[in-house]
Design a protein that fits this description.
It contains eleven helices and eight strands. The protein is of the alpha/beta class and 315 residues long. The longest helix is centred in the middle third of the chain and has 18 residues.
Length: 315
């Protein structure tokens, strides 16, 4: 089993004003002359973590990571205006231009895989390849499974806590009920809903549930941006024009090398989406981790991603 590379610090950090409203935080680490890779975090609204740098050989890679609009150190905090998939695709391009990079490898998991596919299909000429994990294509069936009916059959105990802020008469549309509360003028109403939403995801992300993850996701400074921005994207169906848009446009990236890493027991983003993506993009390497759920930090997923990044360093 491969483990993370040693912890490193960024050699460059900064802010990029991407609109009149939004400014995003970015960092560079590793080798300034190395192969460029853009790391796309999850959520949307999850923000970056120092551990993400450690999935790449720092001698081989120029590692670029940023907080997407409204989360982490980007401002304004938890802002929903001017915050769409296509705004983020534009932000990635602005970063590429800022760093004077011609082409780069795109690495993303969970929502990061959604954004990676959307970006690559918009700018295939700027991509050297994709490393994807925990595939999520933001289709209605995927949203319904996790937030309305499906995953609750596996985690009824965690589901009970998720439902707590929502009265019985509103539970036939949980996405709408949460959105109403997450956009409330009352901060306590927002926070109660945000914690319930965020802890539900933390409770289901790993094959073996982690109390530490649940506590981390319950933190006020994380939960509000995470829950608000996720729910905003989900009620707007990812701002896609068609439910199967990412699958239908796979022809735009079929020529690119790709790796798809998927935990077989991923409850957050069930394996059917990764399977359907692979059927549409059969040249991409498909790696199923039989003893893993959704989390990037589970041993088998970590091993597969690090091996993939090592192989892509030679492209």
């Amino acid at each position: 089993m491969r483990d993370l590379y040693p912890a490193i610090e960024p050699y460059n950090q900064g802010k990029l004003k991407v609109s009149a409203l939004h400014t995003i935080h970015y960092e560079e680490s590793g080798n300034p002359q190395g192969k460029p890779v853009i790391f796309l975090h999850g959520g949307p609204g999850g923000g970056i973590s120092p551990i993400y740098r450690q999935y790449f050989d720092p001698q081989q890679w120029r590692i670029i990571i940023f907080d997407q609009r409204g989360c982490g150190q980007s401002t304004p905090y938890a802002e929903l205006r001017e915050n769409t998939t296509w705004d983020l695709v534009q932000d990635i391009e602005q970063l590429r231009q800022q760093f004077k990079i011609d082409k780069w490898v795109v690495f993303g998991g969970s929502w990061g895989s959604t954004l990676a596919l959307a970006y690559a299909q918009t700018h295939p000429e700027r991509c050297k390849g994709l490393i994807l994990r925990g595939i999520f294509m933001l289709r209605p069936s995927e949203i319904r499974w996790f937030y309305q009916e499906g995953a609750n059959y596996i985690y009824p105990d965690a589901w009970q806590a998720y439902l707590r802020p929502i009265p019985l008469e509103e539970r036939d549309d949980l996405l709408g009920a949460f959105y109403k509360r997450l956009t409330s003028e009352d901060r306590q109403v927002r926070l109660e809903a945000a914690r319930a939403w965020s802890v539900w995801e933390a409770s289901t992300s790993k094959l073996i549930p982690s109390t530490i993850s649940q506590q981390s996701f319950a933190r006020e400074e994380f939960a509000e941006a995470f829950a608000r921005i996720e729910c905003h994207y989900f009620v707007n169906r990812g701002f896609f024009t068609q439910d199967n848009q990412l699958l239908q446009n796979i022809k735009r990236i079929r020529h690119l090398p790709g790796v798809i890493v998927q935990g077989r027991y991923d409850v957050v983003c069930p394996m059917i989406s990764a399977w359907e993506l692979h059927q549409a993009w059969q040249s991409a390497e498909f790696i199923v981790i039989n003893d893993a759920g959704h989390s990037v930090s589970e041993p088998g997923i970590k091993d597969a991603l690090i091996r993939a990044s090592d192989r892509f360093a030679a492209l």
